[in-house]
Design brief:
- With 182 residues, the chain is of the alpha+beta class.
- The protein contains six helices and six strands.
- The protein has a six-stranded mixed beta sheet.
- The longest helix has 22 residues.
- The radius of gyration is 19 Å and the shape is globular.
């Protein structure tokens, strides 16, 4: 993937091109914006941007506070369990919101902020969402969920980092000789 192209698409909020032209997702069958109602009767409009094997990516052109984003996610989940919502605001600000749903565990909402002056972290994560053409026939919803988890589940990323760090640390300690413990 071309990082400069992805950065440009993120900054212009052209998520449909990002997902459908660069990540191998499909254009949703239902492309019309729709509204969900949250507590207090407030209607929030969402735009379907892409889907893959029952997982839907949505765009919300408003940036709400965390509690309202969670209510919107809950309202969307009533009709489409597996989804990602990208909330946007002026100047390229974005919050990518995904909820990990693990049976027998509480919901775990994951959010990743994109700021135009700090794009690389999200761009790296977006790479995990790609479905290459040669894998298209083997991909199912479970595979898409795994890709989303690898991209957006910070707990897994952190765990992987510390596992690798411990391995490197242990190898380094075994390498050091002649220094007394204090």
């Amino acid at each position: 993937m071309n990082r400069n192209t992805i950065k440009e698409l993120l900054e212009t909020h052209d998520f449909e091109e990002l997902f459908c032209e660069h990540l191998g997702w499909e254009v949703p069958e239902q492309r019309a914006p729709f509204s969900v109602r949250i507590s207090g009767g407030q209607a929030v409009t969402l735009q379907p941007i892409a889907h893959k094997r029952g997982f839907l990516a949505l765009h919300c052109p408003d940036m709400f506070d965390a509690a309202t984003r969670a209510k919107i996610d809950t309202a969307v989940a009533r009709n489409m369990r597996e989804h990602l919502i990208i909330f946007t605001a002026g100047e390229g600000r974005q919050r990518w919101h995904w909820t990990r749903r693990t049976p027998g565990q509480p919901l775990s909402r994951k959010e990743h902020e994109y700021l135009p002056r700090q794009p690389m972290l999200l761009i790296e994560k977006i790479g995990y969402l790609e479905v290459p053409l040669d894998e298209e026939d083997q991909v199912d919803l479970v595979d898409v969920l795994d890709r989303v988890k690898n991209a957006l589940d910070i707990d897994r990323v952190t765990k992987r980092f510390y596992e690798r760090f411990k391995k490197e640390h242990d190898a380094f300690l075994a390498f050091i000789e002649g220094i007394a413990d204090m």
